[in-house]
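Hey, resending since the last one bounced:
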Amino acid sequence: MSMWDKNKVGCILLDKKLARPFNKGDKRTQKPAWDELKCTKCGLCYLFCPDAAIKEKTDGYFTSDPDYCKGCGVCARECWFGAITMVEED
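The structure tokens again:
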């Protein structure tokens, strides 16, 4: 097993005293919603997400992590099948 697959996605802070907690999703106004009838589980949303906020569920479909998703809509624009729409945040 290689070392790279043990690393977490995103940056790694070596001195955690210099960082303050911040969730990108705090200022989001829209969030992605998946239509599983249209989704082909291709993973393009996962690949194109600039914040690594999309995770694969156990059934092979995808969902966004609300703490990291900033609601930019890249996943919806890149979905070839129209399975993702941006909906207003609750």
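DSSP finds two helices and four strands in the chain.

Sorry for the duplicate.
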